[in-house]
Specification:
The structure is a single chain. The chain has helices at residues 44-53, 79-90; strands at 25-30, 35-39, 59-64, 68-73. The protein has 93 residues and is of the alpha+beta class. It has one domain (24-90): Gyrase A, domain 2. The chain has a four-stranded antiparallel sheet, with helices on one face. Strand 3 and strand 4 (68-73) form a beta hairpin. Regulates arginine biosynthesis genes.
Length: 93
């Protein structure tokens, strides 16, 4: 008898979303070292995934919790550009 195996298919299609994702965002801000996106409860991992799927070169990576996404910039000297890239990606200005 064969083994049961769980396998995820690779993602090769673009993630599309409409402006409703902006309705999940409460705040986008930054300090000297990272950008923070505050979301409604349960939305942070989706938001992080949207940022990670097609990242801007100014973004090194994200960590999504329940209602907060931490975005790590590639360079802290360009933190303003990183926040702007996040705002553009999420459609929040």
């Amino acid at each position: 008898m064969g083994k049961k195996v769980y396998c995820l298919q690779p993602e090769n299609t673009a993630v599309h979303f409409n402006s409703s994702i902006a309705s999940q965002i409460e705040l986008i801000t930054h300090n000297q070292s990272m950008v923070i996106v505050k979301t409604h409860a349960g939305s942070a991992q989706l938001v992080a995934r949207l940022i990670d799927f097609d990242p801007d070169p100014s973004i090194l990576g994200t960590v999504g919790g329940n209602d907060t996404v931490l975005i790590i910039p590639k360079s802290v000297e360009e933190i303003d550009l990183c926040e702007l890239a996040v705002r553009r990606r999420l459609g929040v200005f």
